[in-house]
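Annual report, structural modelling task.

Input specification for the guanine complex:
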Amino acid sequence: MNIIDGKIISEQIKTEIAAEVRKMIADGKNPPHLAAILVGEDPASQTYVASKERSCKEVGFTSSIYRYPATMSEAELLKAIEFLNNDDEVDGFIVQLPVPKHISVDKIIESINPKKDVDGFHPINAGRMMASLPSYLPATPYGIMQMLERSNIETEGKHCVVLGRSNIVGTPVSVLMSRNSKNANATVTICHSKTKNLAEITRQADILIAAIGKPLFVTADMVKEGATVIDVGIHRVASPDTKSGFKLVGDVDFANVSKKCSNISPVPGGVGLMTIVSLLENTLKAAKKEVYK
Ligand code: GUN
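The model returned the following structure:
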């Protein structure tokens, strides 16, 4: 059984990005700049944004964080987005989700300039992805595709079962896996909360992508011998085994599933690390105007 190590793969990609940044600087250009808007005090969001900032530093990007209180109005947030849309110093930016309930997430996403939408959440980028046009790919699906490619996992003609149909992961990764392109060309089945005979379907998967948002949902009896399993979930659960009293687990029961499959991505140390480097890759593309002129 092979562990698909997100740490090793993400470090590899960061090294490649850092080399490109050094080249840009040597050519007299500015390094890429990523900005993040953080509304409120959600602890997970604070951790994500801090880790994005650290990753920017590691590869030589500049970055900025705009922090606002949870009481900020939707109009004020739209104004902050408009400012970044027009700031030539900023190549790309994200609004960290979730935003407080009184703010419409759809309105926020649609107000971001698609050329700076390095999360790839804007309907223009989602639509361009569907049409196989150049676009910013959403970070987690892009990270999963990179993990499979860099681990030399054959996808062509394989049956890929995706658990979950979210806009951010399940739906876009199913599109990317089924595309007529190198390192894709899989036959894809999407399963969700209303799927009947779920285990019967997951047992047919050569590649199983679990993005269902339920801790330890995928058990060994749901997995075919020799399958590749990608775990997108990340959950903090109570644990008597750790000093903190908590541990991180994925959507997959790693201890048992790993005995049965041929490749598996762990949690932590898997997809999560890839998501951040994908954001860096999109920001680099934004700075180089590779997607939009
Ligand atoms: N919250 C959880 N994941 C993400 C992400 O990929 N981007 C943003 N903006 N917010 C998130």
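The longest strand covers residues 33-39.
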